[in-house]
Amino acid sequence: MRQIFLDTETTGLYPDQGDRVIEIGCVELFNRKLTGKTLHLYLNPDRDSHEEALRIHGITTEFLRDKPRFAAVADEFLEFVRDAELIIHNAPFDLGFLNKELSLLDRPPLKDYVSGVLDTLVMAKEMFPGKRNSLDALCSRLEVDNSGRSLHGALLDAELLADVYINMTRGQDALLIESSTATEANVAVVHVDLQALDLPVLGANEQELAAHATVLSELDKSSGSKTTWRTHA
After folding, report:
1. Please, are residues 157 and 150 in contact by the beta-carbon 8 Å criterion?
2. Distance (Å, whole) CA 32 – CA 148
3. Residues near 38 by Cβ (< 8 Å), separated by ≥ 6?
4. In sequence order, which ranges of 84-202 are alpha helices (DSSP H)?
5. pLDDT of the residue at 157
6. What average pLDDT score do residues 16-23 get?
């Protein structure tokens, strides 16, 4: 699977009010291994950044004045992400801006060029309910070094997100390694008929059931009663 970690920096928060993309950072992951391939673009938005946004990314109008406009690099960007799964932290924000840039060029939305989108913010909220799940918070929780992040930057944040995602899905790495090792060693797969075995059924005792009910209640409370056993009941 080819996956692309993507982040943007913008002039503000509202693409429908004229804010534009000023930086795009992409990092490639192939078969769950970083390839070293990246795409990093600065863009001239033909407008100033809002003061709040400038304090976050520090990218000035003067610095962007001689940079290409999105129209000049759209094909390069789309070719880099084409057919890949995009992995984005708070995906609606970045997709909203990129789709607006594409619409200004009469191009279809980004979903038409990629195989799918994974939002790591949604993923983190499911893994760590009730906790802060910003990129900085995840770096701290998962022991990813973000000491160089004094300001937001699209490529740096995409690289940090790659490390965070790999740590969040570490169990998948183990499964892939085991599968790869078995294949390389040409290990035979043995199928066992469990119906021929007399397997004992061990039920939970009252104390274990009470502890389980407490955990479910806490998860239900932290998710605002949106847990699976409620939504699919």
Report:
1. no
2. 24
3. 25, 26, 27, 28, 155, 158, 159
4. 91-104, 120-127, 135-141, 154-168, 170-184
5. 95
6. 97
Torsions phi, psi of 82, nearest 5? -55, 130
- Say yes or no to pLDDT of 191 above 70: no
- Cβ neighbours of 180 (radius 10 Å): 11
With contact defined as beta carbons under 8 Å apart, do 23 and 17 qualify? no
Dig out the tokens for 149 from the structure. 């992040």
Sketch the domain layout of the chain as residue ranges.
Answer: 2-176, 205-233
To the nearest whole number, what is the mean pLDDT of the chain?
A: 85
152 noted as active-site residue: yes
Instruction: Reply yes or no on whether the pLDDT at 195 is more than 60.
Output: no
Query: Which among 40, 50, 57, 152 is annotated as catalytic?
Result: 152
Among 122, 102, 120, 121, smallest CA distance to 110 is for: 102
CATH hierarchy code of domain 2-176: 3.30.420.10
